[in-house]
């Protein structure tokens, strides 16, 4: 394994996380491939990417749970390979898979994690109470964790991760599988924590959540393919425009459209087909003709502003 | 190192044990239940006890007597001796469990109605075979004697024990204390399952993302299982005393202290090994393979250890059960305290402390 310290000059105290050419291989497979990024203190940083793109692997390296194969990372001023314990005491971590103890109740879990982070006594009592109120766990304090609904579990995991008032909170798909109302509540919480100065590093699949981040990085097959603010990314990084077609059957439409030249990208969103091309308006008549020839019913067709997801799909392929 | 954190882990671990029925069973009642099963199995199903016979009489009756002993195959004739020394040698080599000495006037005395006395020497290393064998030998001899039509009121054959024969073997269940080390494997199985379950559920990953130290984690796991181990051992001891009527002659506090040492050793080794195991299934197989089966055959519980050659003896020394079996037998049958069993106690401490220390050194806070 070859790892190196970051050159001292590149470290800036305003950065909560710096990754430079961070790489992790599993055998021959490169899960994270020479990625570099910075997370400024106080920002909500969204780390986006499809399944298996390397998000969790990156997070584990930031926490010292996995060693980089090469490259380096610095978290809150400490090198991840050489000072993982320093980092761990200042970071709160909510893992992708719910991993608190299901046979302990809410208070028991919070007490345990509080003490694990060296918070105890009156301080623990006070902070636990604040966390319980903040996370909306009032009334379920004595409930066995196994019996909590998904949204409650996620908020409990968050509460357990903030008892030691971490400077950086790392959340790995914290809202996966949670209903939309709970997701919105969860993000309100993240905003409150960010407002108190906590840096937040969060991965998600949900584009509506991505839109709420201050800054984003998009990882695809181990490479970072885009970074910037959500609006930055939408304006600057999209090389074409998007046409949205509501048609039936959409799967067949996709097949037809993929045979047309000059279209950069076609993707399915539920029953809606998105087509990306340099000058999509000029392509519209050709698209309509092709679909009609294939006896596909077009309910509506319109040029729309690109969503983040369109950008990411386009970037990943391009 | 933080006492708060250690205490937090201990408390959490106690809760896990108390709230999971399977774990709770493993660390409370299961050793006692296994003890009952094994005790009856061994007491009545001791297979093929090997006899050495020195027939100084060489008469028709003495040959009939020997034939009646081995008729059903539960005794086998492994040695025809021609003196005490030949029997003693065969026993040292582990070739025989029991030595039988038929006196030169055996037939003459029985026919005269005076009654003959047969001498019996048993393997002093307290094997189950020897213990079961003594009881069975007495039964067989009595049956043989009953078939002799004797007019005399004196018993036709008396079984006489040799001076170096351990009188305690006379009790059917004298081997019960010696079985305790084997059944006390259950807390090790429980801790192995608990550790690997924590890994499987992903809780371990979140735990090592906290600033917890290896020492706190391992000691915090160990202490609750030692505590419950003492509870389950006490249940097993009570069973041996009350149900199997084996007297506990040694001091109780000493026995409990040495039980703690045994638990420290067996759990310490398990903790160390579990650092390299990811799944509950593997953990179960490893504990069975590494502890249960060797403890059965190499610890001296079922077979005398000193008969084993080099490697067997070495493995035997590394097994916590080998030392603890001497402790439980010594404490129960020979009224021994921790002072007389200091060597065994020290061995247990070393067997526990070395892997425990290695466990801390090799503990990786990585996934
Ligand atoms: N321990 C490992 N050994 C081998 N391959 C691994 C290991 N951990 C992860 N991988 C592989 O590395 C790639 C990246 O995995 P990672 O978990 O980082 O993805 P992810 O972006 O978090 O995906 P998801 O959204 O599904 O959580 C995947 O292809 C995965 O199969
Ligand atoms: Mg992941």
What can you tell me about this protein's structure?
The complex is a heterodimer of chains A (318) and B (367). Chain A has 318 residues and is α/β, with parallel strands linked by helices. In chain A, 36% of the residues lie in helices and 29% in strands. Chain A contains eleven helices and 14 strands. In chain A, the strands form three sheets. A six-stranded mixed β-sheet of chain A has the order 6-7-8-3-9-10, with helices on both faces. In chain A, strands 2-1-4-5 form a four-stranded antiparallel β-sheet, covered by helices on one side. In chain A, strands 12-13-11-14 form a four-stranded antiparallel β-sheet, with helices on both faces. The longest helix of chain A has 16 residues, at 180-195. Chain A starts with 14 loop residues before the first strand and ends with a helix. Chain B has two domains: 3-41 and 171-362, no CATH class; 49-164, 3-Layer(aba) Sandwich (abc type-2 transporter like fold), CATH 3.40.1710.10. Chain B has helices spanning 3-19, 21-26, 30-44, 60-70, 84-92, 106-111, 128-147, 176-183, 186-201, 203-208, 214-242, 252-274, 280-298, 310-318, 320-333, 342-362, and strands spanning 49-55, 75-80, 98-102, 116-122, 157-161. In chain B, helix 4 links the parallel strand 1 (49-55) and strand 2 (75-80). Chain B starts with a helix and ends in a 5-residue tail after the last helix. The mean pLDDT of chain B is 87. Bound molecules: adenosine-5'-triphosphate (ATP) and magnesium ion.
Keywords:
heterodimer; A: 318 residues; alpha/beta; Rossmann fold; Alpha-Beta Plaits; 2 domains; six-stranded mixed β-sheet; four-stranded antiparallel β-sheet; 11 helices; 14 strands; 36% helix; 29% strand; globular; B: 367 residues; abc type-2 transporter like fold; five-stranded mixed β-sheet; 5 strands; elongated; binds adenosine-5'-triphosphate; binds magnesium ion
């Amino acid at each position: 394994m070859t790892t190196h310290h970051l050159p001292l000059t590149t470290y800036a105290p305003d950065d909560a996380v710096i990754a430079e050419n961070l790489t992790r291989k599993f055998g021959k497979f490169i899960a994270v491939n020479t990625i570099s990024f910075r997370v400024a203190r106080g920002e909500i940083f969204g780390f986006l990417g499809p399944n298996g793109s390397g998000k969790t692997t990156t997070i584990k390296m930031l926490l010292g749970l996995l060693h980089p194969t090469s490259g380096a990372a610095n978290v809150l001023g400490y090198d991840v390979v050489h000072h993982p314990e320093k980092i761990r005491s200042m970071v709160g971590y909510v893992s992708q898979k719910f991993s608190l103890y299901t046979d302990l109740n809410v208070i028991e879990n919070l007490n345990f994690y509080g003490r694990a982070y060296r918070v105890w006594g009156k301080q623990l009592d006070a902070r636990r109470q604040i966390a319980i109120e903040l996370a909306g766990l009032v009334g379920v304090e004595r409930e066995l964790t196994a019996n909590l609904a998904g949204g409650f579990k996620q908020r409990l995991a968050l509460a357990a991760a903030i008892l030691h008032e971490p400077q950086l909170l790392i959340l790995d798909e914290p809202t996966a599988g949670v209903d939309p109302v709970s997701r919105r509540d969860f993000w309100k919480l993240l905003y409150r924590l960010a407002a108190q100065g906590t840096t937040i590093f969060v991965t998600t699949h949900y584009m509506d959540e991505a839109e709420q981040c201050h800054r984003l990085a998009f990882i695809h097959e181990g490479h970072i393919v885009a970074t910037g603010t959500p609006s930055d990314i939408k304006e600057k990084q999209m090389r074409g425009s998007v046409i949205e077609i509501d048609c039936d059957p959409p799967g067949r439409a996709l097949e037809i459209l993929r045979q047309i030249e000059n279209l950069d990208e076609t993707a399915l969103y539920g029953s809606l087909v998105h087509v990306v091309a340099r000058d999509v308006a000029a392509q519209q008549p050709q698209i309509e003709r092709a679909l009609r020839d294939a006896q596909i019913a077009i309910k509506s067709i319109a040029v729309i502003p690109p969503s983040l997801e369109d950008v990411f799909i386009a970037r990943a392929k391009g | 190192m933080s006492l708060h954190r250690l205490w937090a882990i201990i408390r959490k671990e106690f809760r896990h044990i108390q709230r999971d029925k399977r774990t709770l069973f493993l660390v409370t009642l299961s050793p006692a239940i296994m003890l009952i099963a094994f005790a009856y199995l061994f007491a009545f199903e001791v297979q093929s006890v090997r006899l050495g016979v020195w027939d100084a009489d060489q008469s028709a009756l003495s040959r009939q007597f020997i034939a009646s002993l081995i008729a059903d195959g539960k005794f086998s004739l492994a040695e025809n001796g021609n003196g005490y020394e030949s029997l003693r040698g065969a026993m040292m080599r582990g070739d025989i469990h029991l030595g039988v000495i038929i006196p030169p006037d055996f037939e003459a005395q029985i026919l005269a109605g005076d009654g003959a006395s047969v001498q019996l020497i048993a393997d002093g290393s307290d094997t189950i075979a020897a213990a079961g064998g003594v009881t069975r030998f007495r039964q067989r001899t009595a049956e043989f004697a009953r078939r002799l039509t004797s007019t005399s009121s004196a018993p036709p054959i008396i079984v006489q024990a040799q001076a170096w024969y351990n009188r305690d073997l006379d009790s059917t269940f004298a081997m019960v204390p010696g079985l305790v080390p084997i059944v006390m494997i259950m807390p090790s199985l429980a801790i192995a399952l608990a550790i690997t379950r924590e890994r499987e559920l992903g809780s371990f990953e979140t735990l090592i993302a906290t600033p917890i130290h290896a020492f706190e984690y391992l000691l915090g796991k160990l202490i609750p299982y030692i505590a419950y181990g003492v509870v389950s051992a006490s249940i097993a001891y009570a069973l041996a005393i009350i149900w199997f009527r084996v007297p506990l002659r040694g001091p109780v506090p000493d026995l409990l202290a040495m039980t703690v040492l045994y638990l420290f050793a067996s759990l310490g080794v398990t903790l160390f090994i579990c650092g390299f195991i990811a799944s509950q299934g593997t953990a179960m197989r490893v504990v069975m393979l590494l502890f249960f089966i060797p403890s059965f055959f190499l610890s001296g519980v079922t077979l005398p250890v000193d008969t084993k050659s080099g490697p067997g003896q070495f493995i035997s020394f590394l097994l916590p059960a080998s030392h603890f079996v001497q402790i439980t037998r010594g404490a129960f049958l020979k009224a021994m305290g921790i002072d007389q069993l200091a060597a065994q106690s020290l061995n247990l401490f070393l067997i526990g402390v070395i892997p425990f220390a290695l466990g801390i050194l090799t503990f990786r806070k990585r996934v």
